[in-house]
Structure formats: C-alpha cells, structure tokens
NAD(P)-binding protein (Variovorax paradoxus), 402 residues
Amino acid sequence: MSENGQIKHIVMVGAGLGGLAAALALLRRGFEVTVLEQAPALGEVGAGVQLSANATRVLSLLGLGDAVAEAGAEPTGKIIRHWNSGRTWEIADLAGDSRNKYGHPFCMFHRADLHAALVRGVQRASPSAIRLNSRCESVDLSGPRPVVVLQNGERVEGDIVVGADGVHSRIRIPIAGADKPRYSGCYGWRGVVPTAQLPEHLRAPVGVNWIGPGRHVVQYPLRRGELTNFVGIVEGEGWQVESWTQQGTVEDCLKDFAGWHEDIQTMIRSIDVHYKWAFMVREPLQKWSSGRVTLLGDAAHPTLPFLAQGAAMALEDGYVLARALEAHRDDHQAALASYEKARVERTSAIVRGSNDNASRFHNPKLADPEGAAQYIEDQWAPEKVRQRYQWLFEYKVDEVPV
C-alpha cells in the first residue's frame, strides 16, 4: 500500500477492453494493478469491433501493434448501399487511407481477438494481475482508501478504484446513483459469418452501410477477412433485453428485414447464431469520480453504436487515466480531476454524435430510390464526412494535456 499519499496500487473492476487497456498502461508505468473480473474464465462474445486510428494508436502505444497486423482486418474503403435496390455509393473515406492521414490504421477486429491480445499484454507485464471469479458487489468509501467488496465477502483495498464494469456498473452507484436507462427505440441483431460461405461479391474487404427507412445494416470483415460481421439495427418496440448473449431466431431476423435486398437475406441466412439486444440510453455523466474512485468506458458514457466509437472511447479512457495518475502520483484529486477534464467533453460529444447518426441512417427519405440518391449524395458529401469523423480520428491520447 502507498506511503505518504502516493498512488501505487490501482484496483480495476472489470476485465473488458477498457479495463485491460488501462491496466496495461498503468503496469507499463510502474503501478501495481489488480484487475477484478467476475467471470470464471477470460473470453469475449463473438462480435465485431471497429477501431479507427485514434484507437489503434492506443494499441500501438501499449506495445500491441503486432496484434493489429495478426488479427485485424483493414478495409480498403467504405460504401453506402440502398436497402432495397442495392445501389452502391463509394463515400469519401477517412479510413481507407488512415495510415497516411493519421499514422495508424483503421482496423476491424473480432472482439475475442482484441480482448485476447490485451490479456496477453497484461499477463506479460504482471502474471497475477487478473483475478477471476471476483464479482464486485459494492465499493466501501467509509475509510481513507476505497475498498471493493466482493460477492464472497472478500475486501480488496486500493489507492484508486476504477469502475470499468460496463453499463451495469456497481462502482457507478455511489458516484451517480442508481442506473436509470431508457429504451432508445432501437434494437439490434448481430452475427458472424465465415466469409467463404458468402457469394464472391459479398467478400470484398470493405465496410458497408446499408441504409433504409427505420433501420440499417453494417457489414465488415474480421480476422484478416476470414469472417464477416453483420449488425442490423431496427427501430421498433417489443424487445428491451439489454444483453450481449440473448439469442433470437433467423425467422424473426428475416422478418425484421423483409423487403430488403437479397444480399441482406443471404447474410442473415448464413449466420449461425443470431444475437439480439436492446439499445438503452443513459445520460453521459458530467462527474466521473468521487474521492479515490473513478469510472471509464461504458460505466461513464455508454453510447449508441452509430459512430463506431464505443470500444475506442474505452481504450482512450484507459490510456489517458494512466497518464493522469502518472503525472499526479502524489495527489489523487489532481489526477482524477485532470483525467475527467481531458475526457468528459470529448466522450459527451461522441454520445451526441452517435444519436445524430441514428436519424441519418434511418431517414424516411431513403424509402424512395430517387429521393434516397439525392439524400445520400448530400449527407455523405466529402466535406460533411470530414466534419463528422476527422475530429474523432485525429485525437492523440499521448498528447492531450493531463
């Protein structure tokens, strides 16, 4: 434990992408880190993750550049397709030339591959840092240092406790009160398909946004192009289960996309397991910390997945938090205040931008092919694309003031 108030031991609650990135960044700076993970084994659900240059920069800074090359899939570009006609528009793309523009690639990952790379990084730095079967029940703030109380009654004390425990965070409760999510009006379908099972014209290594009235589909390559990720977003009621592991049926998924292009029907039929989850909305917190406790990732700023920045925000949070704690080792208040100052405005803007994109992808004008063409050419004009995305991609976690 620390002496003279110096920060030495960090307790990280949650071994997701953000918690592991933070742990690795802290270990590389000489901190002692304990990662408490409720699951009995390490692993992630089968889903795709898009990481733009701002996020792959974090992986490079953490010494995980090889993981990008080994497990990622770099798209050659991005296209928009009309939901019914299948008409294609190549859009001004800030991703295809990402290495030249931003110094780091735009890369798609199977979440399990990215998670495994972070686990390996943490375990190389500290083999015993990650503790499994360690479910957090609460955090005790009554003493001079915070104590995480586990389900089995064990108490784990740290100089700083970080809630990286997702949308259902227990650590968030003493900071922001009880969780109050509301249904966003959208739910999603997701699944992964072996690319070789798809017709050749659906195997191109590009990111595709299918847009239509009231719903949209995103498809993109994973794992060096060996897999294709499918995500279908639907406006509607009747499904408010917020779980990554809840399964639906192929029949219900096909029904939700009835009338959509045959390529969509082909992908849906090719998915082995159709997962279905509700999108819940929570207001982004303006205060992430209390005393020696703080939050990162979805625990602080859960967002709708319409800017593809959820995982990126968690990785950014973890790296900036480590920098702030290093810069203010003797002053926990200054450390957490500088972390919040560096992150709250950006993450809140991303949450708002994601909400804006939902209405853009689902606009009623997309119903009519002629009106859709005019709408798409206006909304995805090069200058508008740059305004929406450039500020996201050019962010540098290692240069923002802390």
